[in-house]
Design a protein that fits this description.
By secondary structure, the protein is mainly α. It is built from nine helices and four strands.
Length: 260
């Protein structure tokens, strides 16, 4: 665990921030490859990436605060924009990124589905790289394994505060591996799915399936329940997004077949 990579006098470089920057650089490079293949102007892609990332970060912060720390917004509305304090939610980022991409597509008169297809593989790979930052930072950690396998985080870290010296599931690494597998699936499908929106919809299904698989092992206490304390909200959200994406995917396939 290395939350701080370098200290240069008053300047502190955090590992999570470095991983986010690496994810943005690699993701933009891969999206550029797809944009060239799909004949999308590169300058339009760069402008779109700015909107998607910016509104996605704000969405991630708002989602997190509304679910887990709503009093922060009541005390200081501008807390929403203080993303350097931590507290971001991937589902909020996805929702914010979709909103940002849709607004940008409307303004620039381009296909939202085409833009989303171009960006989606980069998103999943970026999420994988981001989980390296989570592991180094000690956040998004797992529950105790109860066996002689797992990872031990140092004294003072969030996992240590929660579970002491217990070995915990490296949920960050679980998701890292699954996200990379999902990325290769998307990358291989990008030439096979001939209708716009297909890659994006598969991305939504893949990521939410990954989150459902990993969530039972999470132990960082960011749990919101509905129906008393019986069902975690994350499962409802993931299942809902998966079902909606699958329904749209099937509708698009039927529409494509009816035209051919």
């Amino acid at each position: 665990m290395h939350p701080i990579l370098i200290r240069l006098g008053p300047i502190t470089i955090y590992s999570y921030g470095v991983m986010v920057a690496v994810a943005l650089i690699i993701g933009t490079y891969l999206a550029r490859i797809e944009a060239l293949r799909k004949n999308l102007n590169i300058d339009i892609l760069y402008d779109a990436a700015f909107y998607v990332v910016l509104i996605g970060l704000v969405g991630a912060r708002i989602y997190y605060l509304l679910l887990f720390n709503p009093q922060f917004i009541k005390e200081d509305f501008f807390e929403i924009f203080k993303i350097w304090r931590g507290g971001l939610s991937i589902h909020g980022a996805i929702i914010g990124g979709i909103v940002g991409g849709w607004i940008f597509a409307r303004i620039r008169h381009i296909s939202f589905w085409k833009l989303a297809d171009i960006i989606s593989p980069s998103l999943l790979l970026g999420q994988a790289i981001g989980r390296v930052g989570c592991f180094l930072n000690g956040c998004c950690f797992g529950k105790p394994t109860g066996f002689n396998f797992g990872v031990h985080f140092p004294e003072g870290s969030l996992p240590y505060i929660e579970y002491g010296k217990a070995l915990v599931h490296p949920t960050q690494l679980y998701e890292l591996v699954l996200d990379i597998v999902g990325f290769f699936i998307l990358w291989s499908l990008r030439r096979k799915l001939s209708f716009e929106g297909g890659i994006f919809l598969v991305y939504l299904m893949l990521y939410n399936l990954i989150r459902i698989l990993v969530s039972p092992f999470r132990g960082d206490n960011n749990f919101v329940y509905i129906f008393g304390n019986r069902i975690e909200l994350v499962y409802i959200i993931c299942s809902g997004i998966f079902i909606i994406a699958l329904a749209i995917f099937l509708i698009k396939i039927v529409a494509k077949n009816s035209r051919s």
